[in-house]
Amino acid sequence: MRRWHRFSVPLGAVALVFAVTGVAYAVNEPDPSDPAFLSPVSADGIGGQRLAQALAARGVQVERETRTSDALVSAQEGDATLFVPVPRVVHPDYLAMLRLLPPSTRIVLVDPARQALDDASIPLTPRGRRWAARAVPPGCAVREARSAGPAAALRQRYEGEGVHCYGTGLVHLSWQRADVVVIGASDPFRNDRIGEHGNSALATGLLADHPRVVWLDLHKLEPPPGVTDEPGSPDGVPPSLGTDPRGGSGDGEGEGEGDGSRGGEGDGTGSDGSSSGGSTGSSASNVDDENPLWDAFPPWFWALLVQLALAVVLVALWRARRLGPPVTEPLPVTVRSAETVYGRGRLYRRAKARGPTADILRAAARDRLAQLLTPTPGVSLVDAVAAATGRDPEQIEGLLDGPTPESDEELRRLQSDLDALVEAVRRAR
Amino acid sequence: MVTGRATLLLVLSAATLPLWPSPWLGLAVFAGAVLVLSAVDFMLAAPLRDIELTRDGARTVRSGETATVSLRVANRSPRVLQADLRDAWVPSAGATPSLHKVVVEPGSAVTLETSLTPTRRGDRPAVRLTLRSYGPLRLAFRQRAGRPATPQWTLRVLPRFDSRRFLPEKTARLRTLEGSTVTRGRGQGTEFDALREYVIGDDVRSIDWRASARRSDVLVRTWRPERDRRVVCVLDTGRTSAVLAGAEPRLDAAIDAALLLAALALRAGDQVDLLAVDTAVRATVSGGRHVLLPRLVNALAPLQPSLVETDFELVVGEVLRRERKRALVVLFTALEPGALGDGLLPVLPRLASRHKVLVAAVHDPLLAEARGDPYLAAAALRSLGERDRVRSALTRHGVEVLDAPVDTFASRVADTYLALKQAGKL
């Protein structure tokens, strides 16, 4: 028990330190699904209001969009920056549409995961991830980074094409036709960190390249877009976007642009898009109203199930009542015979007490021999034994009063030799 | 409460649900029907408070034998009693059967028999009786804890007294000692019995010259062993008595030997007292020459070893308080240096100065496999050495010590008693 404690106490302390650290880290880590996370209207520590104000101060128009379709439609007009703080929640189909944006639109993705990058087919792969963001000098030729100086941009590292800044924490690449910036840390954009290092300059620099910022303030997974790959649809615009039934009811900022794009979409696709959108919408409302499982089986099946459930309840009632509780009885005390002898023998063995064991065996043999030979005064026991058995007195002396055995084997030999000697004397008389 | 039949009814009726135009209605009908039927059945079951239970039968049984205890179930209610009855005894009572099925007509009674084969000595109580009264359809039953009240019964399991088989032989030796069976030779002993005429073959040393001078004949004195001596059996029920000697604890061997000794001493005309002590007096029997053996057996039956150190000061105090006259005190214990050396030896002189003391101990059966292993052999030899030291320490106080294996223990105790009697040391 003691020995166990000696290891468990320090190990437990170390485990406790790890656990406390882990919990504290998890608490501190911003949760991207929090509605306040990098939201242009949130004044929380993890919000992005200060960044939005800084952008407005530089004369950049900030459009907050809460649906990806609206944001894409808005960004489609060109000469804008599409800022996606949480790429994880954007539906893969929308991510795939990113490449359809015009070259005059810059896309800024914050900490995209491998899946998001793959879905958007951006040729980058995440490599190592740091425990927290670190402020490093830019070390690259990107204009915004150079003017910002050191900033807390190194957290998730990326590998692939493009210009790598801040120790690969920020990658700027012209991909397809678009201008894409991938940054692995959210710190430069957050209210509580934007004042540190060159964070503010970096964030505003990245987003103020164009007169408009389309800020996708999205924190929950969205339903997929109702895409119809109509051959006649004009290139560049996903046909469903303009005709999404809920498209027009969005926030005020996105409304004007949304309407405009819908108008330019063309007549042929409008009806198709609305029909597909409508069908998905109605099926979704069906799901909410009634589970189709009810109709999958006849009513008697459900009644049968309920009746069998009642039967199970009856079985429980029937079996739960026992015919009186079990009867207990104190057991009599018993102690195994020769318990102390066994215990002592095991103690001798564990302590490797060959000396005391040999002494006891020899003393017992001497007693036994003395009883057998009835010693005469003046004659030593060894001589008497030698006389009785005709053995060498020195050998007998060695047996009865020799050195301590060095191994269990020797001890066993001593025991059998003593037994043989006593036996020989007994037979000689 | 419902039975399995109600469940079965519900399950079977569920199979007809597909045939109903409205299965939910069918469900309601079936569930309601089962519920109502069960409720009616419950109402019609014989009420528990009108059932009377009484027990009768054996109060005692010798260990290893079978006794029968009967249970009378009287139905005072106007309804037929259909019931399951569980008669729960403690597991060591070996009660069979444990579950009775009874049907009792109104106003009549039925007697059930439970046979008990106890596995252990002592008091074996009937713990609980549970009655489950079914309705006529057996869909539901009434059952309630403590109703009807459990009739109390305790079966006392007496010690086996295996050493009875030695009794005829020992008694014969006693008779020889007294001189009543062997015609040749006179009784030995130290107590004067009678004067009679000299016949050829008598020991000339026993001629009473003074009496012969008063008469014309030569008279010899005859002797007999002392009578009306007192024997006190003291049983140590402390921790050392819990050690198994063979299949049973040492205490059982001591009880066996004490019973043989008491039976023999009673035939020899001595008085037997008994004490069982560990940290308190557990059993005591004294005086009374006529019904003594059954009383002894009864007193010894519930004794159990307890894991405490025996208080030998209490033992000596009790013996000295009870026995004013000189007596033979037979102390059934174990030759263990820890228990005897620290407990008994300091107080032994007080006891030995007033009474003749015999310490009777059952061997710890020595290890057969101890020969092979030197460590075990050394431990066994050391235990033997300690035992010898205790024995010699006791002998120095003038105490007789008997140390015997369990199979001959009772016989050896009786022999020692006879030898002491013959030597007139009582």
From TrEMBL, chain A:
Lineage: superkingdom: Bacteria
Pfam family, one: DUF4350
Residue stretches spanning the membrane: 300-318
Domain DUF4350, first and last residues per copy: 42-207
Region (Disordered): 221-287
Skewed-composition ranges (Gly residues): 266-280
Protein's name in the database: DUF4350 domain-containing protein
TrEMBL record, chain B:
Domain DUF58: 195-366
UniProt keyword Lipoprotein present: yes
Superkingdom to which the source organism belongs: Bacteria
Keywords, ordered alphabetically: Lipoprotein
The protein's name in its UniProt record: Lipoprotein
Species assigned in the record: Phytohabitans suffuscus
Organism taxonomic ancestry: Bacteria, Bacillati, Actinomycetota, Actinomycetes, Micromonosporales
